[in-house]
From TrEMBL:
This is Glucose-6-phosphate 1-dehydrogenase. Its EC number is 1.1.1.49. The lineage of its organism: Eukaryota, Viridiplantae, Streptophyta, Embryophyta, Tracheophyta. Residues 287-581 form the Glucose-6-phosphate dehydrogenase C-terminal domain. It is an enzyme of class 1 (oxidoreductase).
Amino acid sequence: MAAFSATHCRSYSYSHSSSINGGQNQRFSFSSFSRLSVPAKAIRNSHQTVVLMQDGVVATKVTPVEKETPKEKLKDELLSVTSTKEWDEKAGFDSNENESTVSITVVGASGDLAKKKIFPALFALYYEDCLPKHFTIYGYARSKMTDAELRNMVSKTLTCRIDKRENCSEKMDQFLKRCFYHSGQYDSEENFAQLDKKLKRHEGGRVSNHLFYLSIPPNIFVEAVKCASSSASSGNGWTRVIVEKPFGRDSESSAVLTKSLKQYLTEDQIFRIDHYLGKELVENLSVLRFANLIFEPLWTRQYIRNVQIIFSEDFGTEGRGGYFDNYGIIRDIMQNHLLQILALFAMETPVSLDAEDIRNEKVKVLRSMRPLRLEDVVIGQYKSHCKGGVTYPSYTDDKTVPKDSLTPTFAAAALFIDNARWDGVPFLMKAGKALHNKGAEIRVQFRHVPGNLYNRNFGTDLDRATNELVIRVQPDEAIFLKINNKVPGLGMRLDRSNLNLHYAARYSKEIPDAYERLLLDAIEGERRLFIRSDELDAAWALFTPVLKELEEKKIIPESYPYGSRGPVSAHYLAARYNVRWGDLDIEQ
């Protein structure tokens, strides 16, 4: 996690990890600082006590050496109070040499992700004074474009959504002045070398740190990394690369990608981004559990009946069918977003909040999970549906999708963790497109109260009396706990109510976008919310066998109408483990 909040970003430091060229760990400060520099001759001729004054002036008390001549003594006295800047100039020191700068290159700058997410996130960080004093942003893509055209393109997606301060347009202009563009091929070392020359001009002799964000298709990751490492890496600071999913299609392709990237980068330089890990409510998972005594004792199979992790979108592929058809909902959502949430939810208490300690615990969870079986998976594909006089298309109506496609747009799965804490507790995942609503949430359903004195008040449906903790990740972020209580009156009538933490009502400040947090962490070198290679291996090991079986056996997805609650088989899957999907409750 970043070591500071958005409201305390004006002065901070971050660790410098090894660069592509293998530089040693250092620590740089983004806050302004004064540097003591002493004239060489003054040092040679005297013993001095150096004091830094409040106004930035350096005062020295000079103790003459035994053989100092009167002329040399007078010269030393004249030099006894001199400004730092004057000494730097006289000694021939570069005033920039101890300052650092960050050069952020968005590779694939003309794409939707860059325009809609990356540039707006960088502006939000700048707006909140979270970026370093010296930084430059370069867009890099194959499209021919000038700096002015890039700025015009970026400006259309920037908003002053954080608040309505009067200086927003001014800040926007200042930010755009730091944005530049370089056109080049992703596999051209020469083009990246030209980019590097431009970066050096902006860096002005400072310690340079390079961050590359690969917002490009995965089939050109390796070539882009190769060119960046050989032609545009930092010579005296760190170099880091943010890689977007998908990280392969299965265990084999993921291992090949990791091996290829590690030809040019160390593991510490690779930041595999999963933007769901940057969402506020996912970030809050460990706080909710480890900072509240009432939850940690209950976070076990003795009290929890099941855990549900649910993702739904109320729209289809909408022109992205060509990309989506190559991956499907399991690879696109379940294997990364939902499985990462599961690992954070189920992990043991880490030794510390250090990135490696947390990621170690997540890996232990993934390695403890039972291999996923085909009978514990349901897949579906949305079909055309008419509602309210509007006809909604089927998945295969998308012109970029083959008419005989068997790619699932919906999937549900039951997973199990074979360890002492979670033995026998079903973790149910569900993800789909073109469903009845849009949202992402974690639902923790607790066991029935043994020997409940009020069973007769609940009737035959005891599940209605089950306590449930709901963490709504998006939209309308909230945490609420369902409890049973007495309805006021003379009779004994029970009601199910929510203890509700509604973020919009509780906190006036708008929740930052996930990309803001993750970009800031990458600049700081904080890796806790990024995926390590062994995590990736363990995640793919869970899903690869069932994915191959689905494809080899050509399992036909169950059809479900556009805008419905998904395939009927998903309900049977949950019922097999005595579970009712929480998001289908009529109260919701």
